[in-house]
Amino acid sequence: MTDYPDLKLFIDNRWRTTSDTLPVLNPATEAEIGRLPIARKAELDDALAAAERGFRVWSRTAPRIRAQIILKAASLLRERGAQIAPSITMENGKPLMQAKLEVIRGSEFFEWDAGEAQRLYGQVVPSAPGVRYTVIREAAGIVAGFAPWNFPLSQPARKIAGALASGCSIILKAAEETPAGAMHIAQAFLDAGLPAGVLNLVFGDPAEISGYLIPQDRVRLVAFTGSTSVGIHLTEMAARAMTPVLMELGGHAPVIVCDDVDAQAAGVMSAVRKARNSGQVCTSPTRFFVAEKSYAAFAKAFADRAAQVRIGNGLDSATEMGPVANARRIAAMETLVEDARAKGAKVLCGGVRPNQPGYFYPVTVLAEVPDDARVMREEPFGPIAIINPVSGLDDAITRANALPFGLAAYGFTHSAANVDRLTNEIEAGNLSINTLEASVAEVPFGGVKYSGHGREGGAEGLHHYTVTKTISHRMELETEPTVAGAKP
Ligand code: NAD
């Protein structure tokens, strides 16, 4: 059997256990693969004290040295990818190749942010002779981070990279269902020489941990990725402490397929992409709005390819799509498909859970789905695609923008005029044309509307982890209260 690590908390550069534990299950077999220690108030107080000490050291560590330690940790993750990937597959279910790519992606987040750590420039603002206005960016302080289970390594990597590159310390509550990914990151930083207390990793009851950490004065940023409902709850809690938030929340990504592209090729590519991570991606392409002329060819190509997706244990090299992450996702898929079917949607493929152990659900293609079906408004966060015809670009854009989400959106077209309209009119933080890739380290990623606010990655990703401080410096002691530097 492939090794799965002994699960532990990581506080003040020490691995710790507690007497309370939770089971961690393999979603492909439903078997228990580990017991996860739970942090209670005592462990959270230790993490806060450690993060305070860590912040004092780390925020005063030269950016170049911070970058070197982050780059060392990233290179250890890359070196260890082949050992790390099976544990991600075991706890999350994704195929081994996707787990390996996730380790690389997590490393890229660290590498990018390590570079940005050295470019957190301030400003010298033009001023009158004898006066200097300087604006600097300072690390915000202790970050309370919350990462979900869909990418056990790269989701924690985003939060840890942003915090550490900016000079912050972080207490990260990674997902209880998938703890090993974040543990591998902590081990890499321990081996890379990160000072104690800068990175702390806890698990437990999510509501208890967020309810304890967020109101603390010492916590200066709440960074969360997960569902919109939980994001709103944490934002309300942070508002009471006047603590800023970085929120990466749900999506329901529209894909506009214009009539000037190869509908068959676009359909095949979309089906493969829908299967990625069993559709459990906040940018997963979900609502396909297809020009009438291309509709039949696109839907057929999509459904034919989707029906061929090989489902199985992610450790088996033939597997294209693993299980969904837990029993809650199966229940959600079944409810949404049943509701759509009852309201008149056609099920082109999938829609029935295979009769085998594990949380397996096939790629399911729903066509001609009426607007009142729940799946048209609720993010499936699983392998369900909706394919509906549209009369033209106006119709497609109106439908794409109809939901309160605005994370990723996609368009397939070779027309510059269409691209120009999509660019100007689509309400989303990320628009991708002729590709279903929505987020790479070097560009900012985040949502509008109920998909959250703030951006991770790109040139602006570290800004949320910093605060600006303005220094007004008069060379001579001011002797009379005038507008600084100006002669009356
Ligand atoms: P959920 O809403 O219960 O949990 C979502 C995430 O938030 C989990 O990681 C969970 O541990 C955490 N969480 C829940 N309550 C919390 C609290 N009070 N304090 C701190 N963290 C808390 O839903 P779920 O069944 O685990 O996941 C399904 C939904 O979550 C999906 O519909 C999807 O919208 C969303 N999700 C989004 C992403 C993303 O990348 N944006 C990732 C995973 C899940």
Task: Write out key terms for the chains shown.
2 domains; 488 residues; seven-stranded mixed β-sheet; alpha/beta; 22 strands; globular; Aldehyde Dehydrogenase, Chain A, domain 1; binds nicotinamide-adenine-dinucleotide; Aldehyde Dehydrogenase, Chain A, domain 2
Which helices and strands appear, and what pairs or packs with what?
Layout: E1 9-11, E2 14-16, E3 21-25, E4 32-37, H1 41-58, H2 63-79, H3 81-92, H4 96-117, E5 123-125, E6 131-139, E7 142-146, H5 154-166, E8 169-173, H6 180-192, E9 199-202, H7 206-213, E10 219-225, H8 228-240, E11 245-248, E12 253-257, H9 263-275, E13 285-291, H10 292-308, H11 327-342, E14 346-349, E15 364-367, E16 384-390, H12 393-400, E17 405-406, E18 408-412, H13 416-425, E19 430-433, E20 448-449, E21 452-453, E22 466-474
Parallel strand pairs: 7-8, 7-10, 8-9, 10-11, 12-13, 12-18, 13-16, 15-16, 18-19
Antiparallel strand pairs: 1-2, 3-4, 5-6, 6-22, 11-21, 14-15, 17-20
The chain binds nicotinamide-adenine-dinucleotide.
Residues 146, 148-150, 175, 206-207, 210, 225-227, 229-230, 233-234, 248-250, 282, 328, 379, 381 line the site of nicotinamide-adenine-dinucleotide (NAD).
